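@channel sequence for tomorrow's demo:
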Amino acid sequence: QVQVVESGGGLVQAGGSLRLSCTVSGTRISGGGMTMAWYRQAPGQQRELVAAIYSNGATKYGESVQDRFAISRDIFKKEAYLQMYSLRPEDTAVYFCKVVIDPARNYWGQGTQVTVSS
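structure tokens (generated this afternoon):
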């Protein structure tokens, strides 16, 4: 059974940094054979894409984080990371990791809370 676990959330002051991690287990698919993405959801808001790294290594970012966040991965550990810089109060949300193996197999983690104080 595929499991996706996020870690690294917490409370940080505006302007600070945090690094989130996402670990995948329970699949024989290599880390390089899956897309890993970070989404976030603030209270009362829709879940939105923050960043994604595709199986070919290409990356995509949400417009609001384009120049502040960086997504990376370790395909051998089957982990993805989200390095967040210059955090703002509006970045406060629950951050979720999504793993896509193919259109029929995609998995979500439970989420990790990020709170940015002003």
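heads up for whoever presents: The two ends are 40 Å apart (CA to CA).
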